[in-house]
Amino acid sequence: xxxxxxxxxxxxxxxxxxxxxxxxxxxxxxxxxxxxxxxxxxxxxxxxxxxxxxxxxxxxxxxxxxxxxxxxxxxxxxxxxxxxxxxxxxxxxxxxxxxxxxxxxxxxxxxxxxxxxxxxxxxxxxxxxxxxxxxxxxxxxxxxxxxxxxxxxxxxxxxxxxxxxxxxxxxxxxxxxxxxxxxxxxxxxxxxxxxxxxxxxxxxxxxxxxxxxxxxxxxxxxxxxxxxxxxxxxxxxxxxxxxxxxxxxxxxxxxxxxxxxxxxxxxxxxxxxxxxxxxxxxxxxxxxxxxxxxxxxxxxxxxxxxxxxxxxxxxxxxxxxxxxxxxxxx
Length: 330
Description:
Blueprint: H1 18-31, H2 37-42, H3 46-61, H4 67-80, H5 84-96, H6 100-107, H7 115-125, H8 138-158, H9 161-164, H10 170-174, H11 177-186, H12 213-226, H13 234-245, H14 266-276, H15 283-289, H16 296-325
């Protein structure tokens, strides 16, 4: 069987131990998918795996805001990031949650008929506008959106999306035993905060979620991802940070855009691509950098560093726009 992973060979969920095994167990129960590929891809770096899971769980799965509305935001994020695997996953999750007509219209490339749904989808695609939700709900909506700005990049960089995307009928998928487990999970509401004991480290919490489980998860994921900066020399780390900071947080990287030379600065090239165009990472890019002593653990951390810089750039842009325009709805 062909591996769905592009450049790493992670352990199957059932063979992991420690933190990775604990994340897989909670993920299967609360997300309804055993061995979810984005988290398997991160399992070589359990701190990153736990942080990404905690951020998604506490924002998208837990809380009181509508799961449908949060799925629309993350669908929009995944469209913006050109992540077909995640677009398909959100379509299936909407279907599992009972939103069959909405999921069907999105799958056909149509905009939601409900104006409120259309606004949420549009905001996910371009988060520079006003927040289409109450400020009190920012931890859930912003957290969900930023979780998938990170996850989209991990998927596009490390998973063969063509090998695992598309084709299956949602009704047939959900009719199976595994599908029914997914339906139960999507329609449930897991208790907030239960992912936090899985986190091995912490970090400063963002103002839009300070004092919440979402804020704790975001701080932990950010701290774990920034550990990947140690894989670059100081010059390249500064270069990548400044390059992403100068980006508008929205415009795709032009095909003609200048990249660091693959032979001379492969780590800078990989980190920058992970931030701006992870789907453009090639086997040649990875091969140029990945020589002993670098491992799967190192590659996952390098990709995560670039992905988190992009997340932080998007976060900076959305908070600045909100302040400039006078706040969120409600």
